[in-house]
Amino acid sequence: MGRGKFKAKPTGRRNFSTLEELEAGRSARPRSFKQEQIVQNKQEDSDESGEESGDIVERRKGTIPFIEIENPNLVKPRSSKAKETNLEEPIELSRREREEIEKQRAHERYMKLQEQGKTEQSRKDLERLALVRRQRAEAAKKRVEEKAARELKKAGTQT
């Protein structure tokens, strides 16, 4: 008979250590591999320290102390000092830096030509501006004529 939608897991019950077991140092949980290694290392260190007095053994983690190879692809960081820099050498830029500088120069050149009115876009803008100025001048002239016509009409009707 089913007991709902969740299945019972075959892991069994969890065992928790009691406070007394923890204080006594004996828990129901078995030691892990790392804990056993630590205990063995401590025992070896105590044995070695008894044999070698004064020598400090440096322990490094992982496989680094065992495998020492020369990697030709490994880039070692080289610190350069201010004294070592040669100011006479031309600075070599990367491709991206060169392209960025060229792009900025081209933009500056374009803006200079734009201000002088030598580009196609600036010519079109100036033509549009001249057209708008002409239309505004014609509209202003027309308003002045209409105002003068109204004044004459008013003056003619009052007498």
From TrEMBL:
<feature type="domain" description="Casein kinase substrate phosphoprotein PP28">
    <location>
        <begin position="71"/>
        <end position="148"/>
    </location>
</feature>
<dbReference type="Pfam" id="PF10252">
    <property type="entry name" value="PP28"/>
</dbReference>
<feature type="region of interest" description="Disordered">
    <location>
        <begin position="1"/>
        <end position="103"/>
    </location>
</feature>
<protein>
    <recommendedName>
        <fullName>Casein kinase substrate phosphoprotein PP28 domain-containing protein</fullName>
    </recommendedName>
</protein>
<dbReference type="InterPro" id="IPR019380">
    <property type="entry name" value="Casein_kinase_sb_PP28"/>
</dbReference>
<feature type="compositionally biased region" description="Acidic residues">
    <location>
        <begin position="45"/>
        <end position="55"/>
    </location>
</feature>
<feature type="region of interest" description="Disordered">
    <location>
        <begin position="137"/>
        <end position="159"/>
    </location>
</feature>
<feature type="compositionally biased region" description="Basic residues">
    <location>
        <begin position="1"/>
        <end position="12"/>
    </location>
</feature>
<feature type="compositionally biased region" description="Basic and acidic residues">
    <location>
        <begin position="81"/>
        <end position="103"/>
    </location>
</feature>
<dbReference type="InterPro" id="IPR039876">
    <property type="entry name" value="HAP28"/>
</dbReference>
